[in-house]
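Dear colleagues,

As part of the handover before I leave the project, I'm documenting each prediction I ran so the next person doesn't have to rerun anything. This entry is a single chain, and its sequence is reproduced below.
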Amino acid sequence: MTLDAREASTALLGDDQFANILLVGVAVRAGAIPLDPAAVEAALTLNGVRVEANIQTFRGGRQAVADPRGRDAGPSARARLAAARRRRARARRGGVGAA
C-alpha cells in the first residue's frame, strides 16, 4: 500500500500539517505500532490541540489501511481527494488555481 500522507491530510482537512497523525493511524491499523486506538485518541484529547481535527485524521489513516481503494470513504471524501490531486497537478504546472 502506498499513501501520500500530505495529499490525504489536505483532502481530509484542507491542511497538510496533519500528515504525521494520519501516518500514526496507518501504523496503528497495520500493527506497526502496537497501541490501542482508543489510547491514541485519549492522548490526542489530553493534548488539547485541535482535538477533533487530529482524531478525524487519525481515524482517516486507519481507514486508509482498512479500505485502501477508498470505496467506503463516501463520495465527498473521494471528491475532496480528487480535487486535492488536481490542485497539486496544477501547482506543479504553474497553472490557475495553484494556490
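Residues 75-93 form the longest helix (19 residues). The two ends are 29 Å apart (CA to CA).

All the best with the project,
I.
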